[in-house]
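Same chain as my last thread, 147 residues:
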Amino acid sequence: PYFRFADSGELTPVDVDWLAEADSAGDELRLLDGEREPGNGSLCFTATDSSSVLWPLGSELAGPDLVIRTLATVDDESTFQITVRGAGTDGFDRANEDGHELGPDLLGVLDTVATASVATVRVKGFTPGVRVCLGSLAVGRVVSSAG
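reply #2:
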C-alpha cells in the first residue's frame, strides 16, 4: 500500500495509476558512463562518479500528483537521486529535494515529482564502487484513496 499526508496532516492510504513503466528486459533504459554487467534480469553495473540511467518516455506525462517508483538492488548502501526533464526543456531538475538511499534490504523508493511534467527520467548519484541492479522505473499518478 501507498500512503500520503492528507490536508488534515493524517497519513492516508492512496492508490497509484501507473502510466508508464520501463524494465531492464526492454531497451528503454540507457546506461550512461558505465558498463553493463551480467545480472539477475536487471540492468546491472558497478557505479562510478558519473554513472546514470536514462529513460526517455515515449510521450510526456503531465499533471498533479506524479510519482516515480525505482526498483533496484545494491550490494552495499548507496545514495541516489531522481532527476526529470519536461518536454521542451534542456536541463534536468531534481524530482524533489528528498535524498534517497538504497541498501541490501531496501529494494525500492517511491518519489514525488515537484515538476509539472515528465518526458525523461534520470537516476544518478550512486555511491562509486557499489554494484547496482536496476529492475524497473515507473511513473504514476496518485488518483484516489484506497478503501
